[in-house]
Amino acid sequence: MKIKDKISIQIGGEIGKFNSLPVDYLIEIAKNLQSLLQTIARVSVSDEDTIDLNNFKVELVGFTAGSAVPSFSFTNRIQPTLGTGVQKQRVTVSNKFEILMGLLEKGDLGKIKTHYPEGYVRNEIVDGLYGFTKSFGTAPVNIVEVETKNGHSAILPLYKVGKFSREAKDALSVSIIENKDPEIYEDISIRKVKTTTKNGAKNTKILEEYSGKKASLSYAPSVVVHEDVIYELNCPLRCSLEKEDDYHMITCELLDIVGCGLTIDEAEINFSQEFDYIYTRYNSLDDTKLTKRLSAIKTILNIIVKSKSNGGY
């Protein structure tokens, strides 16, 4: 790990030319750096661990002249948690942060999809990374290491913080589609439908649709199956099913879940994986460890799910 125990940011251009930083500018950088690190922590720490996001707050620990170089480290005001321990969690987060900085430097932002394949997770990472890069405006920025010898400071570049355009952000993000009633088109379409019945509950799935125009369909499972886990729902879960280019997308705006695939079957499998992940993950954490939005989704999940059992069709 190159960054070691602190993150030093060299800011050049007009902003840093006097070897100082305006207070408002420094606060904005610190806030967006902290937000990015906390987002990485939230999505990267193992399910077996508990996490307190207060342990991923940052504090200003130094300022080096030579352009402006503020240095930040994780707070020493540690809140104890269960599991592998805060220091190991911080190493995980630092490693993930370095990966993102490396991708920024190379301009290889497409690989963010490889590191964060789940749509809703990638959206949070992309939003955090975009906010961090926008903190600097047009100023040239490097992540650096500061070495002090014989009273003199040497600044060693580690990563150049490349530009992250709005277009790149949009390309990496999964669109959250408004959950509307099915639209009506004046054309004829043929649908291949599969209906599965379990204990009186029906789950209907459209396998294929052939149409001359793009159509937006409804998708409302009353049972969600992930591998050998069955979730029976109190009511059908209303979602939208759309085809965009070569991808099928199942979107549940209520739970912030998007399932994607080249076929509807693949999209349904991906959707069930996302559903199982957030249900298990959110219920493993106390509400104090979740944001208000994620806590609300956890409450809705526990209202919708009637029962969870092992088995299969």
Any overview of this molecule?
The protein has about 325 residues and is α+β, with helices and mostly antiparallel strands. It has eight helices and 14 strands. It has helices at about 15, 25-45, 85-105, 110-115, 120-135, 165-170, 265-285, 290-305; strands at about 5-10, 60-65, 70-75, 140-150, 150-160, 190-200, 200-210, 215-220, 225, 230-235, 240-245, 245-250, 255-260, 305-310. It has a five-stranded antiparallel beta sheet with strand order 2-3-1-4-5. Strands 8-11-12-13 form a four-stranded antiparallel beta sheet. The longest helix is centred in the first third of the chain and has 22 residues, at about 25-45. It is elongated, with a radius of gyration of 23 Å. The model is unreliable at about 185-190 (pLDDT under 50).
Provide a compact summary of the structure:
Helix content is 34%, strand content 29%.
Strand order of the largest sheet: 2-3-1-4-5
Major beta-sheet overview: 5 strands, antiparallel
- Structural category is alpha+beta
Mean pLDDT: 83
Q: Any idea how many domains? A: 2
pLDDT < 50 runs, ≥5 residues: 184-188
Q: What's the alpha carbon Rg, rounded to whole Å? A: 23 Å
Q: Count of DSSP E strands?
A: 14
Run of helices and strands: EHHEEHHHEEHEEEEEEEEHHE
> Total helix count?
8
Cα end-to-end separation: 47 Å
Q: β content, as a range? A: 25-35%
General shape: elongated
Helical content band? 25-40%
